Amino acid sequence: MVYVKWAIILIFWGSVAAILHYALPQHDVVRIVNTYEERQELNDWTRMFWASPDDQSANLTNRDVQFIQAVRPSGRVVVYRNEDTGWGWPFYFKFDTANLYTEANDAISTKDDPEWVAVTHYGWRNEFLSVFPNAVSIKPVDGPDARIIPWFNIVFLTVFFALLWAVWVRWRRFREARIDPMLESVEDSYYAAGDAIEERRGRLRRWLDSWKSK
Description:
This protein is α+β, with helices and mostly antiparallel strands. The chain has helices at 2-23, 97-106, 151-212, and strands at 26-41, 62-71, 77-82, 116-122, 134-140. Keywords: Membrane, Transmembrane, Transmembrane helix.
């Protein structure tokens, strides 16, 4: 049971960490090299990684999606999708896909004359599942070594873990004040009942022994 308990705990907190890693904003310093639009097939098991901007597109099996191609300072390539999140999850309330697409086109530069930008995005890149992170905003930076401090993530995680700590402390106090005494009472009653049964068995055994001796 101990292994099952720890397995459940690890699965739960691993799921929480994965959700936070997927949903919280991330920042990449990149050089945009191209933008394009492509029709994507929306499979049932990968649809969760694509935005659903309106009810009409919720049941579509494919739709046109805008993409932004970029290169990191290390030379590694990265591709972002550009979709509105609307009022859905994650709660970025992004409605400016067309504006962001224009900003991305305006920021296109070459290797000889690079223009570096910070792309804020959420999500994962998985080539096997054809999953792309969703770009949320683009801002110019001074160079490839620009440092982006994730203030939102710092504040959010601080508040999140503070709330978890507060809930845990209150739960521990509630358990010590209410649940533990109740369990101890039940346990004492169980042992008391067991002792009473053993005493009755002892009396019955002595009574039977008294008949054997006659």
